[in-house]
Amino acid sequence: MLGFEREEWYMKHYIEPLDYSERAYDFIEGGVEQLKRRVVGGLKVDWAWEGGWTLIHCAVNNDDMGCLQFLLDHNGPLNHASKQGQTPLHWAAFFGNEKAVQLLLDNGANVDAIDCHGRNPLMWAVSMTDMDSNEANISCLQQLLEKGSDIGLCDGSGRTVLHYAAGTQCDERGCALEFLLRNGAAYHINNIIDKEDKDRLTPLCCVHRSNHEMEHSKLLTDWSTAVQAKKSGVQDEVSPMPRYP
């Protein structure tokens, strides 16, 4: 889970507020046994609150795999989107919840569901990669890519996953930017390594948000140079790049 201040920021900027009169989380916070009793008592597993939140969204947000499994076993709406287009998979990816991501994907979640800003879960997984969740979020990136997530997608602002990754934090546990470059982003047909968004900013312009600005700048520059060399026939493949940081 996020710390209080970051979660408050997240709720303000990304998620429309719940209709708390319905006390949606009350159905989840008591655990799976209480949820079962509620369902037996008439609670519908496909109920959606104002804003489009479902019980599955709440189970993901609470990191309650028991409730999540129960809801999926009873045909809960795993691809239901909120009014802002956010599915439970968006949330699981954002929080770096590897178990929830895998469970949702195994049950048929749409790996490239698009929110109202044009972002898929892969972008959400990258956008919250930081010093506290680095390893978990990179694992989520791998899970999503293995299920065929579109690494070359552009969101509504023309940004790619590399725009988001360029400004993320990294440490000895991993670097999301390097992971994406090594797993298809560098050679994508849309040339996303040098792609400009609607403000004419490339991923290289976004590195100032990272705690390793110089390393990320070099990483993008080295890969871009190597990719261009390969395309021009100067070399057959990208030579191994040093790991950053």
TrEMBL record:
InterPro entries: Ankyrin_rpt, Ankyrin_rpt-contain_sf. It holds the Pfam family Ank_2. It comes from the Eukaryota. ANK repeats lie at residues 84-116, 117-156, 157-192. Keywords: ANK repeat, Repeat. PANTHER family: ANKYRIN REPEAT AND PROTEIN KINASE DOMAIN-CONTAINING PROTEIN, ANKYRIN REPEAT-CONTAINING PROTEIN-RELATED. This is Uncharacterized protein.
